[in-house]
Amino acid sequence: MALKEKCGVFGVYGPAELEASRLAYYGLWALQHRGQESSGIAASDGKRIVDHVKSGLVAQAYQEEDLERLTGHIAIGHNRYSTSGGSRDQHGQPIINKSRTMAFAHNGNLPSTTALEAFLTKHGIEHDELNDSAMMAASINYYLEHGRNLADAVQAAYPLFTGAFSCVAMTNDALVAFRDAYGIRPLALGRLEEGFVVSSETCALDAVGAAYLREIQPGEMVIVDNNGLSDRQLAEGQQRLDIFEFVYFARPDSLLLGRRVNDVRMQMGRELAKENPIKADVVIPVPDSSIPMALGYAQALGLPFEHALIKNRYIHRTFIRPTQALRERDIRMKLNPLPESIMGKSVVVIDDSIVRGTTTRQIVSMLYGAGAVEVHLLSCSPPIKYPDFYGIDTPRQNELIAATMTIPEIRDHLGATSLGFLSYDGMIRATGRRAEVFSTACFNGVYPVDILERAGEVEGLKLAPVLTHRNIHRQRKAEVVD
User: Which terminus, N or C, of the chain has the lesser number of Cβ atoms within 10 Å?
Assistant: First the structure.
């Protein structure tokens, strides 16, 4: 099974009758896959900001009375999967400042908060209990309190942000959305009949009836206020979208870099078939993101395709801490095999990625238990050898199975008949885009944004062969205005 994404953001600006918070609510439903820990919405009627944040899924977090209270023509929303620091109860978003004049939400992660901490310390702002997102909000708020409008405050604080971020923020009269200089996490802009929408993914634009306009560019900020839509380039942009958005994170109906995610995943399966053709009786996906991958693989080789692992779609991340014996049965709560599709057959099972290998090993065992005579395991991404520092829930490097074992060793550990991975080049070919527009750090250890003090956690660390973020950071730090 794959990595966990961290957070989705959504924003709406329009006329009063738009009911911005309800649109944000529907947008967050569409972005539920990006975070299941908590959900929150902040809204403004031009006079005050009100908010509602609660643990759990969108369906659990809001009642009708909550939405009725969130009145106004501007709203931002956030689905959370915890980032650095704190629990779900302490650090739900959007973050609201004490005067309730600004709300802020963040998708991504800052591997280094040194510059932020120094800035906040210098200005006497307590930050010991703040995570990276809250420190970002505090720095923007500092400039708001010193007389700048929201767009100018973000521009002033932007040089302090070292890492990956797609953010939305609002005051009583403006909405802004901005990305880091490498565009590691996605962010899209849409148009309503009267108003604008920003979202982590285009699928949420579809959900609220917004027309997709374009992606917000790396290093860009878009501003929506009484003057309409405008934009500023806050830093020179170099696109490095996290390729795991294509591999696993994004919904298949979303558009990224002009490509439909579902189409790219099917092509990944076709590329996998070229590199790892196996004569088998049936091709089975590990749901959900692997379904188009397995379909592409099966079609390319003319093999039968079956949904032989049935997913319980009502099982999400749980905060119950069961006994170890029950924890080991967790996979059987989520997936159940169809013996009629497996019994006596040679099976190709396709997953999007292999991380620790714990769940994958259980799946292989489950398929043998359902009567498979051979289990050929294929991954539609290369071996994951490096941790992520940009907003993905990755283990430490020594917990990544491909960082500690050879492919034959992994195969034996998982108990599979055979094991194959899509090559790096095959993965890139499937996207139809150049390798240079992606962050592929989990596969090759090339980190486009310098991870600074976290570098000691990685063996084989490399800096991307572009202007390093350390240099960009130094340049920006010099531009910070007190």
Answer: C
H helix or E strand, kind and range, residue 410: helix 407-414
Distance CA 112, CA 309 (A): 41
| Residue 104 bridge partners (DSSP) | 95, 169
Burial of 89 (0-12, 13-18, 19+ CB in 10 A): exposed
The structural domains of the chain, ordered by start, are 4-239 (3.60.20.10), 259-431 (3.40.50.2020)
Q: Is 53 helix (H, G, I), strand (E, B) or coil?
A: strand
Q: Residues 425, 251, 411, 444: is their CA dihedral positive or negative?
A: positive
Q: Give one DSSP letter per residue of 72-123, joined into a string.
A: SSEEEEEEE---SSS-TTTS-SSEE-TTS--EEEEEEEEEE-HHHHHHHHHT
What is the sign of the dihedral through the CA atoms of 394, 396, 401 and 402? Answer: positive
Is beta strand 438-439 parallel, antiparallel or unpaired with respect to 241-242? parallel
Mean pLDDT by 10 residues, the chain (482 residues): 69 93 98 94 96 95 96 96 50 94 95 95 95 96 98 98 96 98 97 96 98 98 97 97 95 98 98 98 96 98 97 62 54 88 98 93 96 98 91 77 95 98 98 97 90 79 48 41 48
Q: Which residues are catalytic?
A: 7
Q: How far, in Å, CA of 57 to CA of 257, rounded?
A: 28
**Among the listed residues 147, 142, 113, 143, the one whose alpha carbon sits nearest the alpha carbon of residue 130:** 113
Q: Beta strands 346-351 and 282-285: pairing type?
A: parallel
Count CB atoms within 10 A of the CB of residue 467: 14
Q: Which two tokens stand for residue 308?
A: 């032989």
